[in-house]
Write a structure and sequence with these properties.
Layout lengths: L7 H14 L7 E4 L3 E4 L8 H5 L1 H4 L4 H11 L7 H15 L13 E4 L3 E5 L4 E12 L2 E11 L4 E5 L1 E2 L5 E3 L2 E4 L2 E11 L5 E10 L2 E10 L5 E9 L8 E11 L3 E11 L2 E6 L2 E4 L7 E3 L2 E5 L3 E14 L2 E10 L4 E11 L3 E14 L8 E17 L2 E10 L13 H6 L1 E12 L4 E12 L5 E11 L19 E15 L4 E20 L2 E19 L4 E16 L3 E23 L4 E23 L2 E6 L3 H5 L1 E17 L10 E5 L5 E5 L13 E17 L14 E16 L10 E10 L3 E10 L1 E3 L6 E5 H5 L4 E14 L55 E12 L8 E12 L5 E10 L4 E13 L2 E8 L6 E8 L8 E6 L7
Antiparallel strand pairs: 1-4, 2-3, 3-5, 4-5, 5-6, 6-7, 6-10, 7-11, 8-9, 10-11, 11-12, 12-13, 13-14, 14-15, 15-16, 16-17, 16-18, 19-21, 20-21, 21-22, 22-23, 23-24, 24-25, 25-26, 26-27, 27-28, 28-29, 29-30, 30-31, 31-32, 32-33, 33-34, 34-35, 35-37, 36-37, 37-40, 38-39, 40-41, 41-42, 42-43, ...
Length: 960
């Protein structure tokens, strides 16, 4: 319980009682048992009558004072009423006392475990044994504390045993941080102090000094100071300065400065300053010095970083070489957590090959621009933008900054999208943009699309209606979209514009328990414009009106039927005239609106057949309870007439020089043209699904749920499809397509395969397929056309719980909103491509917590579409392996081998070593186009990341 301060009247009354008792002499008054008190300057402003008795008070011994105090006032320190009365008597005797000059602004609260000693003559207070002081933002804990109330100062010292070994040291805290010191002096009024042999942590940095003076602003002046970000004892490295000035939250200034690593001085500077806080801060970006086979000796990636605020920053950096080549790059980055983030970067590089005047002299300029923006306006509106623009001079791209993914794929891919939903998802707006630029060729393709979608609604249904009437069941579903695509090569440019509008009216009705049907009528209108430079535009409109029915018969058969009527509007027709004199064909194109009609009919029937097999003894041995085979047959029929018949008028003919009739379409130069030849195709497909039911225990499900103690999974899927065209005069049988997949052991093992076969043989001279069954020619029923096989596997060990979070030895620090844009916070496996030495961030913040992980992916394809040529085989094996043999080592390998070319593609080995406050990284690509190595060792602390040693060997002729 906290006791109230002893008032002047209480002291006076206490002194008078002791005086009349005739106690022995002493120099001090002691209050024991961890007394807790609040002092102010007015506590010592007692009346003269009390001052005259102070000499008598000081003649009382410690033991007698304590004994007589408890005899006269038993339990007095716990009685709030008595203290309150004595406080009131003080007011009555003294009236209003004035606050002395130089008094403190607030009370000083203190406590001690052993004793609190008051020296009223010297106006001193002594705290023994775990003394604590609390004054405004200042807090102190020390074994020995002396408070001088006249000077408003305190003195704190350490406690030692008989061998001079320190038992406890003073620890104090204010708004600038927490400090440990052997001795200290602090002034409450000026908020200045002097500290001896201090140790403290400020802004993720650890400081130690022989003598420190603290100013009221929080700045520290250190003699014989050491600074480090290593929390190991002793630290693995530190900076020593005979004189240091520490500005908390800003910087450290030292002169001279000496870097020690494991106690060994490595280098010294006469003057140095560096940031003392983690995170972003403005300053000079230290460049790297190196040699490149293309541009020679160079200084790279040096510049200035401007930390604008917690939401924006700006980087300007570049390279310069002794051969005259140079590069400049600027990047502006912004972020507001949970709302938006993005960056805008631009780069220009000029590279010289050989000296000016030499026969092989060449100057190459290259540039690239990248714009990214991600924003969530609200849960219903989101925008994503990632745009990349680059020059065609790919040899001038900087490997330090250009995306390694684009370099390997030789493509710069851009995209942008915006989505917005309305009315709780019933309406939506979508806008997208795609751009692909070939870096090694002058090929560029772009596309965009805009779509509006309205969910199904019932326009004839009243608000209070039950919806039982036939017209109230009519549902309306509108949608519209617009798209454009552009393709540019070195010799041509093509643009396509498409606009589509769809209106669908549907009616769902149940005729009986065995027959339900949905009838729908749609009108799909598509308009297209095609522009091919330097030719004129070609345009056309297609209006499709499908009338369809989706029904369920007898509860087991799904029957779908559709009759589609198409109307086409085109802007030109053509007529061909044969010239008998020179046997040439003259083509006459007529501009103007023309139209033609087509129609088609499709119907399909699908059902499911089941077969279940009990496993008997396997249930007890393996937990396998049953196997189920599901057969899904699907029959479809489609019909389309021959629109080249003369009755339609869509085709014309002429007689060539051999007297043969040549038929041609009047609309062959238009965007749309009617097909020739009748089609009556019966398609068939069989899907086989194999499932297993096994014993399991899912405690998340209800006790009465049958699936609580068992689970079902699909372990194999097989599909076969083919068809027969009754209207064709030859080659009636379609190709047989087979596919199989299994995900039983996913993600540990996933398998898939597909194959295409033909029933007909081929001409031995031309290789063309002929109307003769392959089985009659060779005895084998099927001829392989193509096949593919894919296998992927991922195996990994469990992540070490002790290493989850930040890497070992890393220091916690505040993270600004911009940190979310840092690539270091991303797992390199998520991008699909491993990081390379092209990025100066390589190797930082490596996760050592995964014991091991292995991924394997194998693709095998065979192509025999040309039977006269040998089969084309293509096989590729990609694998990656990561292992952390200890908590501080990690080894990673990435390799892709192409069996067709017998070459490795970008095989790379990565080695990372966590050195507590340092980190070592090594990357080696032994063979291939990107053959190189890169070694770096540097500090992990964000504010000291530029202190590193690196050695690299850049790839040579990377784009050849």
């Amino acid at each position: 319980m906290t006791r109230k301060p002893l008032s002047g009247v209480f002291l006076l009354f206490f002194c008078m009682q002791l005086f009349f008792q005739g106690c022995a002499s002493s120099e001090r008054l002691t209050a024991t048992s961890a007394a807790t008190t609040a002092l102010q300057d007015t506590s010592f402003s007692v009346p003269d009558s009390a001052q005259t008795l102070s000499a008598k008070l000081l003649a009382i011994s410690d033991s007698a004072a304590t004994r007589k105090f408890h005899e006269l006032f038993p339990d007095s320190l716990q009685q709030d009423s008595l203290l309150q009365n004595t406080a009131d008597s003080l007011k009555t005797e003294l009236g209003k006392t004035k606050k002395p000059k130089g008094a403190l602004d607030s009370a000083i609260y203190y406590t001690a475990r052993d004793s609190v000693i008051y020296d009223l003559t010297g106006k001193m207070v002594y705290l023994h044994g775990e003394g604590k002081i609390d004054y405004q933002e200042f807090k102190l804990q020390a074994p020995e504390i002396a408070i001088d109330m006249q000077k408003n100062e305190l003195h704190a010292e350490s406690a030692f045993d008989s061998t001079k070994f320190g038992l406890a040291i003073p620890v104090f805290q204010d708004d600038s941080g927490e400090y440990e010191a052997a001795k200290m002096t602090y002034n409450f009024k000026t908020k200045r102090g002097k500290i001896t042999e201090v140790y403290t942590q400020i802004d993720d940095g650890y400081y130690k000094g022989e003598h420190i003076k603290r100013r009221e602003t929080g700045e520290l002046y250190v003699e014989g100071g050491r600074y480090t970000t290593c929390n190991h004892d002793p630290p693995h490295y530190w900076f020593y300065g005979a004189k240091m000035k520490i500005i908390p939250g800003d910087r450290v200034i030292a002169r001279p400065l000496v870097l020690y690593v494991e106690g060994v001085p490595l280098f010294a500077l006469p003057f140095m300053f560096f940031p003392s806080k983690s995170g972003q801060t403005s300053g000079i970006v230290i460049p790297s010095y190196g040699y490149d086979s293309q541009i020679g000796y160079n200084i790279s990636e040096g510049g200035y970083y401007w930390y604008i605020n917690d939401y924006m920053d700006w980087l300007n950096e570049g390279d310069i070489s002794l051969k005259g080549s140079w590069r400049m790059r600027t990047r502006f980055r912004y972020a507001e957590r949970y709302h938006l983030s993005g960056n805008i970067s631009a780069e220009f590089q000029r590279e010289f090959d050989n000296e000016e005047g030499d026969p092989g002299f060449e100057k190459v300029d290259g540039w690239n621009v990248e714009i990214t923006h991600n924003q969530e306006f609200d849960p219903s509106a989101k925008a994503k933008i990632n745009l990349k623009f680059a020059s065609q001079n790919t040899t001038a791209y900087s490997l330090n900054t250009f995306d390694a993914t684009d370099i390997i794929s030789q493509q710069a891919t851009s995209y942008a999208s915006f989505t917005k939903t309305f009315a709780e998802g019933q309406r939506s707006l979508s806008l997208s943009y795609q751009r692909t630029q070939e870096l090694d060729e002058k090929n560029l393709s772009e596309s965009f699309s805009l779509s509006l979608y309205q969910g199904q609604f019932y326009p004839f249904k009243g608000r209070r209606s039950t919806g039982d009437k036939i017209w109230e069941k009519l549902a309306f579903t509108p949608s519209t979209s617009m798209s454009g695509s552009f393709n540019t090569t070195e010799s041509s440019h093509t643009a396509n514009w498409t606009a589509t509008s769809n209106m669908k009216l549907s009616l769902q009705h149940t005729f009986s328990s065995a027959f339900q049907a949905t009838f729908s009528q749609s009108i799909n209108t598509t308009g297209r414009i095609k522009h091919t430079a330097p030719y004129s535009d070609v345009s056309g409109v297609k209006i499709a009106m499908p009338l369809s029915m989706q029904s369920t018969l007898f509860g087991n058969f799904n029957v779908n039927t559709s009759l589609t009527l198409n109307e086409y509007l085109v802007d030109r027709t053509v007529e061909k005239i044969f010239n008998e004199e020179d046997s040439t064909v003259t083509e006459v194109e007529t501009r103007g609106l023309n139209k033609f009609y087509t129609y088609s009919l499709t119907t399909s029937v699908q059902t499911r057949l089941y077969g279940v097999l009990g496993t008997g003894i396997l249930e007890g041995l393996l937990g396998l309870k049953a196997l189920r085979h599901t057969l899904v047959p699907n029959l479809s029929y489609s019909y389309s007439p021959d629109f080249s018949r003369g009755t339609y008028g869509y085709y014309k003919s002429y007689i060539d020089e051999d007297g043969d009739e040549v038929r041609y379409s009047r609309f062959e130069n238009s965007l749309y043209s009617p097909s020739s030849g009748e089609s009556q195709t019966l398609g068939i497909s069989l899907s086989n699904i194999f499932e297993a039911k096994v014993k399991s225990m899912d405690s998340t499900k209800a006790i009465d749920d049958p699936s609580r103690e068992e689970s079902t999974f699909q372990f194999l899927s097989l599909t076969a499809s083919s068809g027969y065209n009754f209207a064709a005069d030859s080659l009636n049988i379609s190709q047989l397509k087979l596919s199989a997949s299994t995900t039983t052991l996913s993600p540990y093992l996933t398998l898939s395969a597909s194959a295409t076969y033909d029933f007909y043989t081929y001409d031995k001279e031309t290789g063309d397929k002929i109307n003769k069954l392959y089985i009659k020619d060779t005895g084998s029923p099927l001829r392989l056309i193509s096949a593919s096989f894919n296998m992927s596997s991922t195996l990994k060990g469990e992540k070490s719980k002790s290493l989850q979070g930040s890497p070992q030895g890393s220091l916690p620090g505040a993270q600004s909103p911009l940190d979310s844009l840092n690539r270091n916070n991303q797992d390199e496996s998520s991008s699909g491509l491993v990081p390379t030495d092209f990025n100066r961030e390589f190797g930082r913040n490596t996760q050592f917590g995964m014991p091991w992980q292995m991924t394997l992916n194998m693709n095998f394809t065979i192509d025999e579409s040309d039977p006269l040529e040998p089969a084309e085989l293509d096989a590729q094996l990609s694998t990656s392996f990561r292992i952390s043999p200890t908590t501080n080592w990690q080894l990673r390998t990435y390799v892709t081998y192409n069996f067709s070319d017998h070459k490795f593609n970008f095989p790379t080995i990565y080695i990372n070593r966590d050195l507590h406050c340092w980190q070592m990284s090594f990357q080696w690509t032994p063979v291939g186009t990107y053959r190189s190595y890169y070694f770096k060792i540097g500090l992990k602390a964000p504010q000291l990341q530029d202190i590193e040693v690196e050695k690299r060997d850049q790839p040579v002729a990377i784009f050849e």
